TrEMBL record, chain A:
GO terms for molecular function: mRNA 3'-UTR AU-rich region binding. Belongs to the RNase PH family. Gene3D superfamilies: GHMP Kinase, N-terminal domain (3.30.230.70). One of its GO terms (biological process) is nuclear polyadenylation-dependent rRNA catabolic process. This is Ribosomal RNA-processing protein 43. The lineage of its organism: Eukaryota, Amoebozoa, Evosea, Eumycetozoa, Dictyostelia. InterPro entries: ExoRNase_PH_dom1, ExoRNase_PH_dom2, ExoRNase_PH_dom2_sf, Exosome_comp_Rrp42_subfam, PNPase/RNase_PH_dom_sf, Ribosomal_Su5_D2-typ_SF, Rrp43. Keywords: Cytoplasm, Exosome, Nucleus, RNA-binding, rRNA processing. It comes from Dictyostelium firmibasis.
UniProtKB/TrEMBL annotation, chain B:
Its main location: cytoplasm. PANTHER family: EXOSOME COMPLEX COMPONENT, EXOSOME COMPLEX COMPONENT MTR3. It holds the Pfam family RNase_PH. GO terms for cellular component: cytoplasmic exosome (RNase complex); nuclear exosome (RNase complex); nucleolus. This is Exoribonuclease phosphorolytic domain-containing protein. It is found in: Cytoplasm; Nucleus. GO terms for biological process: nuclear mRNA surveillance; poly(A)-dependent snoRNA 3'-end processing; rRNA catabolic process; rRNA processing; U4 snRNA 3'-end processing. Keywords: Cytoplasm, Exosome, Nucleus, RNA-binding, rRNA processing. GO terms for molecular function: RNA binding. Transmembrane segments: none annotated.
From TrEMBL, chain C:
The keyword tRNA-binding does not apply. One of its GO terms (molecular function) is RNA binding. Residues 115-157 form the Exosome complex component CSL4 C-terminal domain. Its main location: nucleus. It is found in: Nucleus, Nucleolus. This is S1 motif domain-containing protein. Residues 11-47 form the Exosome complex component N-terminal domain.
Amino acid sequence: MEAFQKIHPLEFYRKFLVRSVRPDGRSLDDIRKTTISTGSITTADGSSFVKMGNTSVVCGVRAEVGEKPSTDKSKISSYNVHENKNIFINIELGPICSNTFSSTKPSDIAMSLCSRLNSLINRLEIPETDYYFDEEGKALWYLYVDVYCLDYDGNIYDAAVLSIISALKNVKLPKGVIENNDEYYKDLESPQRKLKIQHYLIPLSFSVIDDYILADPSLDEEKLSSGTINITYNELNEICLLLSTGTSLISETNLKDCMKKAKERSSFIIDLINNSNVDK
Amino acid sequence: MKIDYRCSNPIKTTKPIDYSVYKNKKLSINGNGNNNINTSINTTVNSNNIKIQRINRSDEQLRQIFMKIGVVSQGSGSSYVEMGKTKVLCTIHGPRATQKTELFETAKLNCELKYTTFSSTTEKIEYVENSKEKDLSLLITQSIIGSIRLEKYPKTAIDIYILVLNDDGNVLVASITAATMALADAGVEMFDMVSSCSVSSTKDNRTLIDPTTSEETIPTSSTILVAKMPSLNEITQIIQTGELQYTNVLECVDLCIDGCDKIYSIMKQNLIDSLLQKQKEKEQQQQQQQ
Amino acid sequence: MSQTTSTTNDIITPGQRLCKESDYISSEGTYIHKGYIYSSVLGFKHIIKRNINENTVNNNNNENENQVENNKDYIVVLKEREPGILPEIGSIVTVQVLRINPKLASVAILCVGTKALKETFNGVIRIQDVRATEIDKVEIYKSFRPGDIVLAQIISLGDSRSYYLSTAKNELGVVFAQSVAGSTMIPISWNTMQCPKTKTKEFRKVAKMDQDDDTTTDSKNE
């Protein structure tokens, strides 16, 4: 069995797919068990740990303080894209999570994922006043969100999105004090505040093998697939991101099915995120 | 050359410093220097003038240790170790083929330790490997290389990757423990498991076993780390930093050796339990199939 | 070599002292240090009884040694999972042909025995190791093509880059190959395979499939 899977992985999978099951026992639209826990990393300003089947990621937020970007347009022309942006997302796919990644160079997957997540997070519409360091907003908090993959077993996109949204909801910012005009201090004794994040993000990804569409693909399935579909909804059932890549063509009915499945997941995910705090 | 492309923020940002530190400093500048002399036996002051006092734990007591093996499905072996708030994950790849073209009669052991960027409250950690991480990686390699039967695996490499998720002191001990547990999980043949323990000794004659970050940063203290193979009764590494009396060194080493034995028995018990657990799961699966 | 095993439920951790050196013969998963046998892996302890009849037949040459060790059993610590499986000299491996040139075929080792490797190792089948007879007439192009799945045996650790493999046995050689048309070919003789679609014949060093191969695949499925 093992040898057959290694030599002819695609044939091996087809044998299962014709019976509408997958080698790990799931049906085609079964999603692996998902768990979220937040606040377990004490050194971070906000953190979360997400596990989907074997895939697991940990996400930590560092809050740093910096000047308010100058409103003078001519000065920041080259950085126009980053205007009014206070959240920076980075994803690390290191050798710790899979033997395919090296530690010296970030992989292509990580880079493309990183830019996709950064554009997605702008949809959260967090008011600028939330980032104010002091009362008047002379300086702003900048949040560096780092996602570390601990176990790479497919569908890293979903796990990353869930970890980012739950870590951001876990962020607690202390009150800031500015002394001597440019010395920044945080007052840990005063009560801390949270970011006002109204929105949720509900991601679901699919892999296409032959004519079969597999929800929440594992690593083996992703390797064999000829196409991927990423769908992300918010809690109002609005599409935040829909991406279909690969060489396979997807029929409209199939795509609608996928979107329906993603929508069905929203209440479950919202509950999961709301009940994720380990402190409670 | 490694290039850090990842930080795209054009605005320079810093980590704000604790306000209470600032207030303390201001106080001491204003002539209230008497504060520092008031150190009683059970309290020591660290660099930030915060008093060290162990709550619910004596000076010779280890923190709660939690470990688990087989946590990463993609590696040949893996482990997760928690010592108090210090959290470390370790994955092993291999024995696998080397990319290097030289011929090895024995396996080559590589170790790479990385802090996550959010793992420390005291220092800023970049995405690229810094010299501290390089140093720790080397120390871990030296501690465990003697325990592995490298001659059993010619032409291969064993790669150890360690990720520090949360740094609350004693990272080196947690990492060595994690690496050894992961090697046992991977089924790599070894002479013995390496367990380690460290002690921080302060100027006022307190010896703090298993120090936390705030205890490690006491400026006048010195630390001793011992890594050993308890079953063979061989020491693989002793590191001492800072100034210590000769008798104190011996005392600390003895204390470390005691700690090593304690950690070793925890490791051993954990391996036995996890294998039993695995066996049970296997039997259940077989029953289900029948 | 061994016939009977007595399994205990003793779980052994690496570095655990098992017994005196004189009590058992140290075997897999154990080592000898200062007169004692220690375990080197995590696993279960097994005592494997030596089959005396078989030994006397097989090892006539060194009888003296046998008489000393005959009454001793092997001690083995077996781990439950074996990710550390490595290609060793003499082991039968399943490989995929990557590149060929007139002197040799470069291959990737996929499986050792019936166990799949996590990551592939590189190997080489040199022209003199393709078959046992008429070595001077062998042509690599008529033996292997890139993409073929081949059964081979490891003959040496080789150079720094790759293991040296041999197919110079009847049961070794190509077991699976695709024709130019893309369908799986059927072996028709020891050196030709035929495409079921186009009926064209292609040359290969074909492995002789016998019942022995079937029994091994059956046992591993259980």
